[in-house]
Write a structure and sequence with these properties.
By secondary structure, the chain is of the alpha/beta class. The chain is 44% helix and 12% strand. The chain binds ligand V47 and iron/sulfur cluster (SF4).
């Protein structure tokens, strides 16, 4: 756990100051962020985050027609929170061929998708060529389809397998047709957290380095935060501050940047077949107030990232809708099928039609806007 704590007096002072600072456009610091987690007036916090969203990026709520494709669930890294991965050799492990991935992308495109989101486990044997061919094949079959693919840990794995630098890997994928990087794998950017939650995964500095390298190459990326597992509120705030710092640097360079922040609530996995029960976290999954506070505080702390996504396949449709009143302005998209978690928070569907998404947004009084991968209205 992170040792930094603030006294109740400091919390009170920050609590009074933080909303004023946010409204003035002043940057919130660690103490402000933590004080906001102690805030009991959830409505005031929500109104503030919503107002800041309107001032900064307007009243549109974005969604896309997209498809998530998971090319394999076989993974040599055993993150303790993950229910998606299977160990090499396990019976229900799968790997899609390049053609199968491309076919899913082609179908999605035919059905109106403008974007595919492709990620998978860190397979011990798939060579770099497999990943490059996926991108090339989709680019060839659907020249206009945006390819958002591969988290930082997959990029690092490709670099190791091909004995190339991270930058070289990004360059080759970009040349093949890669359009942007998704935000997965950031978890909570703290060495101590990684040691406890995902000790085999390349550490937080590596995640930041991949995104910094991608931004330098002009690639847009997203950033996630897996919250509600074993981290403290202080660690969440430090995570946000690290992202904000990298974004400052990337904005100074003026090429790529983080487009969107995606808070992901921990969803307890079912047992993985053939393995002992997944590690039980010493904390339960989040309550709804923590979900809403996390959305609002992310919006307030991340004063240099434009979009905050309420990812309904994990949050659940109902919570994602109310998150739009707490600082979120993006609902991801139609998704079709989501394998990373088995169920979402309200056990609802894994696929929404564009009409359903537009209705959910309209009910909040905001304007639904179908977007492309760079938040341009379609
Ligand atoms: O990297 C794994 C997380 C991520 C669990 O960039 C879990 O637009 C909750 O990154 N409970 C993959 N979360 C998903 C992801 C993502 C999703 C939507 C949009 C975008 C984007 C990115 O899911 C993993 C990991 O951090 N995760 N296990 C779990 N049990
Ligand atoms: Fe593998 Fe990603 Fe699951 Fe970790 S979160 S075990 S890297 S699939």
């Amino acid at each position: 756990m992170n040792g930094r704590k603030i006294t109740s007096e400091e919390a009170e002072k920050s609590l009074l100051k933080a909303p004023e600072k946010a409204q003035r456009g002043d940057r919130l610091n660690f103490e402000d962020g933590l004080a906001l987690y102690n805030c009991r007036d959830i409505w005031r916090l929500g109104r503030l985050a919503e107002q800041i969203t309107f001032d900064r990026v307007g009243r549109n709520v974005y969604y896309s027609i997209n498809r998530h494709i998971n090319y394999t669930n076989i993974c040599r890294i055993n993150c303790r929170f993950c229910g998606f991965s299977r160990r090499p050799g396990q019976a229900d492990g799968y790997v899609l061929s390049v053609e199968e991935v491309a076919e899913q992308a082609r179908q999605a495109h035919q059905q109106g998708a403008t974007e595919v989101h492709i990620v998978g486990g860190v397979h011990p044997e798939l060579p770099f060529n497999y990943y490059r061919l996926i991108v090339e094949e989709i680019r060839r079959a659907c020249p206009k389809l945006h390819i958002k693919a591969f988290t930082a840990v997959e990029i690092i794995d490709m670099a190791q397998k091909a004995d190339l630098s991270m930058d070289e890997i990004l360059m080759q994928l970009q040349e093949a047709g890669l359009g942007s990087l998704p935000g997965g794998g950031a978890e909570i950017l703290s060495e101590e957290y990684f040691r406890r939650a995902c000790p085999d995964k390349p550490g937080p500095e590596k995640w930041l380095a991949v995104h910094a390298a991608a931004h330098r190459r002009g690639l847009m990326t997203n950033a996630t935060m897996l919250y509600g597992y074993i981290e403290s509120p202080a660690e969440r705030i430090e995570h946000l501050i690290k992202l904000r710092k990298l974004q400052d640097e990337s904005l100074r360079n003026g090429k790529g940047r983080f487009q969107c922040f995606v808070p992901l609530p921990f969803i307890r996995p079912h047992e993985k077949p053939g393995e002992p029960s997944p590690a039980t976290p010493d904390d339960d999954s989040t309550d709804v107030l923590t979900d809403l506070k996390t959305i609002a505080i992310s919006r307030l702390m991340l004063d240099n990232i434009d979009h905050v996504k309420a990812f309904w396949p994990m949050l659940g449709v109902k919570l994602a809708q109310i998150a739009l009143c707490f600082g979120a302005n993006d609902l991801d998209g139609t998704v079709q099928q989501y394998r990373i978690v088995e169920k979402n928070r309200d056990n609802t569907t894994n696929s929404l039609s564009a009409e359903q998404i537009r209705a959910l947004i309209s009910e909040t009084g905001r304007t639904p806007v179908r977007r492309d991968a760079f938040y341009r209205p379609i």
